[in-house]
Amino acid sequence: MTQPIILDYYPRNSCRKQDRYFVVCLAVFSVQATCFVSLYVGLCGNQQDSSVKQLDQGNLSDKCLAALALPVSFHTVHPLLRPDFPLVQAWLKPEAARFGEAPRKIPGSLRNGYSMNGIISIREFYFDNAYLGGSALTSVWSLDTINDLRARVRARQTYFNYDSSFVYQALDAHGKKAVSSRRGLVIGSEKPWLEVFLLEYGADHVTTLEFGAIISQHPQIRTFTPANFTAAFLQGQIEPFDFLFTYSSIEHDGLGRYGDVLNPSGDLETMARMLSVVKPGGYAFVGIPCCFDALDWNAHRTYGHRRLAMLFAGWRVVGVFPANALNQSRKPKLRVRQLGSVFQPVWVLQNVMGCVEQKLLGTIAGIFKE
Fold this sequence. Notes:
By secondary structure, the chain is α/β, with parallel strands linked by helices. It has eleven helices and 15 strands.
């Protein structure tokens, strides 16, 4: 199996305006060594607006052709065309477990990062649920447990770990084209509730990425811890996935609650990794607290227009469930934000940066042939 090639962009300010070229970095990873090859490729007459619409579409897949033809923004959510850091940074993100208890206060050197330079408010809502490096809360997923949960999905029951109404809505609308007969990845699943949804909506196979170690007894479900998944993917032992589903997980990344290393950009780096993990034109279903920018330390982040644009960088927003989710932020009772009360719609995204990567790889290959 070939090792993955991750096509990376340097931030715009690292391009020299006078040469009107775009810096592209091909990062070929392995556990033993990392090789970076930087190329000047004459692709961007305008570095700021190197949008997907300007690229010749060549022999891209039907999904990519469809994705590139549609707008990236959705109502008032305008995702960045690409993350504002190199993807290499995301793949170098620490995976080791933190030593000691979770900090009750944000270290002074990290406060600007967590507050987005003072833009978002921070309140204390503290937990120490560390189990990264150990076993998950439900460490064995038995066939009986999974079959019982599948029966509940078939009966359209709405409460599993969370109220699942929005999960049904998203999969009813997009499950046939995005999930059925396809391979998917789940990020963050203490119990196999999302996995059974995906199997019931026709997924061929589901891989779960969870902080704690899990033994799955179901032949269509495989599990990894973060460090093991990263090593396996970068060695080419895991093929890119057709889709991703995560619910109530990304918002915790980098806060230290579950034993992870403190990282103000942990959530952004995880989603940036998924641009390489999910196939070009593939889908992501993302359930996160919404719809105003805030941080309850160290419980979770809440996402408004500012951080959503960063979190969804490189993705096209296909829709959100419920459809009026963005209006919820105007409701006074939600803006007061009772501690522990969380509204989590499901966003449906499509990987358009992967489509651009696919085209650029073809362009680079053509240069080498000349």
